Amino acid sequence: MFDCPSHLARMRQHAPLVQNITNHVAMNVMANVQLAIGASPAMVHAKEEVEEFAALADALSVNIGTLSDEWVESMRLAARAANQTGTPWVFDPVAVGATAFRRRAGAELVELKPSVIRGNASEIIALASESSRERNLKSSSGRGVDSADPVEAAEQAAIELAKRTGGVVAVSGPVDFVTDGKRRARLANGHALMPRITVLGCSQTGVVAAFIAGAEDVFDATLAAMACYGVAGEIAGETAKGPGSFAVAFVDALYNLNDTQLNARLRLEMDDDL
Predict the structure, then answer these.
(1) What's this model's pTM, rounded to 2 decimal places?
(2) Which of 20, 53, 131, 183 is the most core-located residue (most Cβ within 10 A)?
């Protein structure tokens, strides 16, 4: 039986060190979000040290939001090092369908078999299509970091991508979809102001990385991370007057998140009939 509070308690007890190779816009918010929920962030991206640090970290998150050749090389090096040491890692394919450069980088990182891929519907559709063209998956209409596709349209792409990588795929949206290719779950928590705050999606990837660190079941740990994020968003939205106050309230909600809130608010549907 899925027990979201136990995953939160385990993560907070261990306070995992998470190496984040993320975009310039996300670094500050992502670090604060990880600290608030109980993890220890490290923004380490120089190619001269990423491999060494990946061997020390409890988890790794990789985000292609602001790409360069050098950063892509750092991502590849860190992912390979994480694989060698058994360190779980999360890939966030930001705007992966927007340019040929992003599509190539995304496909290369998928081939390194991330433990989790987390993105919006358009990103997951584009990534699955680029990585598995022979499967004739539906093309995405997304542009930039915003999703132009509903989560439901990405469900089959997510399942195919999970089967291809052997990992978990989480699709963020009004109702999140999480699958490992065998199990699937939908989470209906969150708030309408969340997409109005820049890099909250990127920061969610860092939270997923924190939860899967040391987890026995990456699917359940990913589900717990997504659930905690959505519930915190709901709580923040009850007092926020707009995007600015929501951002502050959200960090506070993550910090104060407790078992009672999770048990009372969690809206989850699960099945394993794939």
Answers:
(1) 0.93
(2) 20
